[in-house]
């Protein structure tokens, strides 16, 4: 690989970074790991009787309910909006360099998809990066459209999951055929998954991950989740192209209103969301559609208000590094949990409920906070961010800060 030249769309570094976005991304990662722990710990795949047999069963229901109210779906929503903002930033930088953006971004999305595929097969089958790569590519037709068109498309995309739920457009199981064939081929059953993941060999774990990938695909498609992700990407594109994230101090009154309204409206709706979660009823579909986004927006605006006050330096010191290494830390969460819950590690899968796995998720995040700061004290990028950039740009990019090329 050749070093990055002055005319390439170089990775964002130094003063060009948007620190509020790093902080928001870093905080969102905390919600991501907590939301994902139900699957990473294998609690999701336990039967009701197996859950009831856990020593923490009496408090597990309380912690599970609180997670559904405060965390579930809120932080991947924020993360999805951040991707759209990042897309708009890439467009701006590419145009400033006189580069052909489409070819550059398609290459970037391809390698993100491949990284996500490797993550899904080797570590955790419920990977979301592949959906992000696909939705990212589908933003390309909106590069030259008006803001009204972007917001209109976002609204339609965000409503589609409700339509899917109310009219059962794609019944659950529509895309499970390949998984069933692979299960039969390898001798897997749904009931045996926890035992295989928590006590099986690396070969069995990888084969079960690869087979179960179709279950994740089925859920993303039949629930309409792929459209929600896309709608959030479009909202992020609108925010990014209008550079709202760069003018937070001017928007303080609006931030206060959205924070109050988002939390006032969002919290009660998310209590109802949690209460109806297992029912998959029309009511749940409605509150999921109208309740998640307001509470997510409330969280973001609360953080933005702290940012515009006296807490900026503390927020940057605490959360910016983990946010700058979002890809590494997202996949790192899966790697850590594989060592804790899978047969290749401690094999603790299926042995703990929310009472224990949520504090464990917090502990994992705290380790990542410290590790990210230590890493970025010496290096420019996280390891996977560095790899992704080199693959995208087709060029050697110095990793150590001492090796950084001087700007021209």
What descriptors fit this protein?
408 residues; mainly alpha; two-stranded parallel sheet; 17 helices; disordered N terminus
Structural commentary:
This protein is an all-alpha fold and 408 residues long. It has one domain. 70% of the residues lie in helices and 1% in strands. The chain has 17 helices and two strands. It has a two-stranded parallel sheet. It is globular and about 55 Å long. Residues 1-16 and 403-408 have low confidence and may be disordered.
Please count the helical segments: 17
Q: What share of the residues lie within helices?
A: over 70%
Widest beta sheet: strand line-up: 1-2
Number of strands: 2
* Biggest sheet architecture: 2 strands, parallel
Which class do the helix and strand fractions yield?
Answer: mainly alpha
Strand content: under 5%
Q: Termini distance?
A: 20 Å
Give the total of domains.
1
Oligomer: single chain
In the predicted model, the low-confidence regions spanning at least 5 consecutive residues are 1-16, 403-408
Global Rg = 21 Å
* Secondary-structure element series: EHHHHHHHHHHHHHHHHHE
Shape annotation: globular
Task: Provide mean pLDDT, rounded.
Answer: 94
Concise account of the structure shown:
With 408 residues, the chain is mostly helical.
Write the layout of secondary structure elements.
Layout: E1 2-3, H1 19-40, H2 48-52, H3 57-70, H4 74-97, H5 101-122, H6 129-137, H7 147-167, H8 177-186, H9 193-199, H10 202-222, H11 225-241, H12 252-275, H13 282-308, H14 312-324, H15 326-341, H16 354-376, H17 383-393, E2 395-396
Helix pairs in contact: 1-4, 1-14, 1-15, 1-16, 3-12, 3-16, 4-11, 4-13, 5-6, 5-17, 6-11, 7-11, 7-13, 8-10, 12-13, 14-16
